[in-house]
Design brief:
Bound molecules: zinc ion
Largest sheet: 7 strands, antiparallel
Oligomer: single chain
Shape: elongated
């Protein structure tokens, strides 16, 4: 990379998402480019799946090469373009908890809709509600929440027009009741790409977006991940617990996995300190047990004693705080080891 290019990379502002959504790869969703913005250059990085894209307005972004990454197992196994749950994993085979990278420096995130939800996850009128409903006027763009591959784009029962995206961490996001779909199964999308338009198709009493987050086919409250009031992602590293799949397990604000982790760290630290102290005491005891003493007799010299205990005069001096000139006193105990 040239110095100039590097300088550009280091000094420009963050990428304009609209400008780059469109520009990368044939599998990207064609979104109109902003006027005056065009692709200036594509740079390789150390990771063959990752490129840097530069735009004529000096914006840039890391992007994953959809063509390469979409060949990863997560995008090929348990894959079909019809079923809302192609995994068929028995509940007893779900992990008690799994920690997922939600976004890293390469991925991005786009809030589906910064709003007050109109209906929560959980039971509603005696029927299980697998996601949350976000007010969404018909025709409003529906954005991909994370980078991923379109698994379903079509009419799917009560969902009406549905888009299901699968993401590299194994999560799937669902976007239901859309009026119009802007992607097709197999497309690679980046966070923020327009994948559909809001609507009221399927079992819906008015325009809204039905949004779900699923893992291995099991839905959990999307509010564990996203604060829809602020539009912020709650976690970059998210611990998904099996109990979240329970139909009545709604997001609880007090629960903070990061605090739990910090608490765990503190416990580990205290435990490690305790162990270190115990080891120090044990070492001290072992050293004491290894000490040997000798009672000076008539005719002894330091070199005689050193020879007897296979040590040196200087060691004897050091252990007893003496010099070679110190007069040995008969009957005095000296340390020899
Ligand atoms: Zn809903």
């Amino acid at each position: 990379m040239s110095g100039l290019m590097l300088a550009v990379l280091l000094t420009v502002a963050g990428a304009n998402p609209d400008s780059l959504r469109a520009a990368y790869g044939k599998e990207s969703v064609p979104t109109p480019k902003l006027p005056g913005t065009s692709l200036a250059d594509t740079l390789d990085t150390g990771n063959p799946e990752v490129k840097v894209i530069l735009y004529s307005d000096h914006t840039w972004r890391y992007v994953r090469d959809g063509k390469k990454i979409s060949k990863n197992k997560v995008f090929t196994e348990d894959w079909n373009e019809v079923s809302t749950n192609p995994y068929r994993v028995a509940p007893e085979h779900l992990p008690d908890k799994v920690t997922l990278w939600i976004v890293d420096t390469l991925d991005s995130y786009c809030c589906p809709n910064k709003t007050q939800h109109s209906s929560l996850f959980g039971y509603r009128h005696g029927r299980r509600h697998q996601g949350i409903d976000l007010p969404y006027p018909t025709g409003t763009p529906v954005y991909a929440t994370f980078d991923g591959k379109v698994r379903i784009a079509g009419w799917t029962g009560g969902y009406g027009n549905l888009v299901v995206l699968r993401h590299a961490n194994g999560l799937e996001t669902f976007y239901g009741h859309c009026s119009e779909l802007k992607v097709k199964a197999g497309d690679w999308v980046h966070a923020g790409d327009v994948i559909a338009l809001g609507g009221s198709t399927g079992r819906s009493s008015g325009p809204h977006l039905h949004f779900e987050t699923r893992y291995k086919g099991y839905a959990f409250d999307p509010m564990w991940l996203i604060d829809f009031k602020t539009g912020e992602l709650r976690h970059r590293l998210f611990t998904l617990r099996k109990r979240y799949f329970d139909a009545n397990s709604r997001y609880v604000q007090e629960e903070d996995d990061e605090e739990v982790i910090a608490e765990g760290d503190e416990k580990d630290r205290i435990e490690a300190e305790k162990k270190a102290k115990e080891e120090a005491i044990a070492r001290q005891k072992a050293a004491e047990a290894a000490m040997q003493y000798y009672v000076i007799k008539s005719g002894d010299t330091l070199s005689k004693i050193a020879a007897k205990y296979r040590t040196s005069v200087s060691t004897l001096c050091r252990l007893n705080g003496m010099t070679v000139n110190t007069k040995l006193q008969i009957g005095k105990r000296i340390r020899v080891k």
